[in-house]
Predict the structure of Alkene reductase.
Amino acid sequence: MSNSPTLFDPVTVGAWQLPNRVVMAPLTRNRAPGQIPTAIMATYYGQRAHPVTGAGLIVSEGTPVCAEGHGYSDTPGLHSPEQVEAWKPVTAAVHAQGGHIVAQLWHVGRISHVELQPNGQAPVAPSAVRANAKCYLIKDENGQRSGGFVDCSEPRALQLDEIAGVVESFAQGARHAIAAGFDGVEIHGANGYLLDQFLREESNRRDDAYGGSIENRCRLVVEMVRACCDAIGADRVGLRLSPVMEGNGAVCDPQAQAIHEQLLRQLAPLGLAYLHLIEGQTGGARDHKPFDYAALRAAYRDAGGQAAWMVNNGYDLALAQQSLAEGADLVAFGKAFIANPDLTERLRQGGPFNEPDRNTFYGGGDAAKGYTDYPALA
Ligand code: 8OZ
């Protein structure tokens, strides 16, 4: 135990020398009207980027890689030249502090609404199975912006000959991320969005090469990860997974363990920077469903995989230290980073911690309230 690293020790992850093992988890905030990053986002991320007081690595909020990838109002994209330009001050603010930031590449798949889709079309998904879930829609009526959760629309199944285009949109997202000054990307394979929809049988009813067997259900994720590695180098690519998460229409797959072990065995030779595991129910119980994360890591390591192992969900300092002692390399904190720009310093000192205000998690435009106004320690 005494020889295991602490959260505050540096670590090499892929192409990056990180000053500590505290990661800021991706956090959707819906504060980018018109899907364009704003100036205050640079302040927000910059506040959390200091190598001593802040995150060793920041994972950006989910950034859709194409117009069809949006499922919530005011989430900043990474598919237009304007968006790439608008991200530059954000990544510059992080680098000015000495920090590191990757872009989380996102496609919501069926977690969307026709009003958020180009030309009001149906969202795309592995199969035409509607998610029993909500997405977030801000309606502009007479200049009034009001937000709310609405039922997801019925999706249409991606045609076989459209899949290469979706894979390419992730590769383009990775290239755009580098052009925007990000240090790399995290592919969002979690939480019931497009990639996760392909992994699970409830949402994937395909009978072609992308559905049915476990190998087929993993195919899209493997192709996307490969495409991003080819685009920017594997040592700048991470992948986030949530093997047993339920919600967003997703139900726990009866073969969750086998699917994820197969997936990671296939990814092992690629040389990824990191794998990011949400343990249990995202934002909820860590023991939500039985799953053997140690066996998953062992399957990956046995196949030669060397990516840093990032863990997430409900961590405090003691649990984080225990996880590092058991073989994790990085620990991601979400809600705590909303309320504590200097979370790493507060963990080091044992607190105190500001409490996050749920009322200001989502939306708020460019207002500082609940975004950049949480105080740092004196
Ligand atoms: C909260 C609200 C909207 C989206 C995720 C991208 O769960 C999200 C998300 C979280 O991964």
Observations:
- The CA atoms of residues 46 and 96 lie 8 Å apart.
- Residues 214-232 form the longest helix (19 residues).
- The longest strand covers residues 57-64.
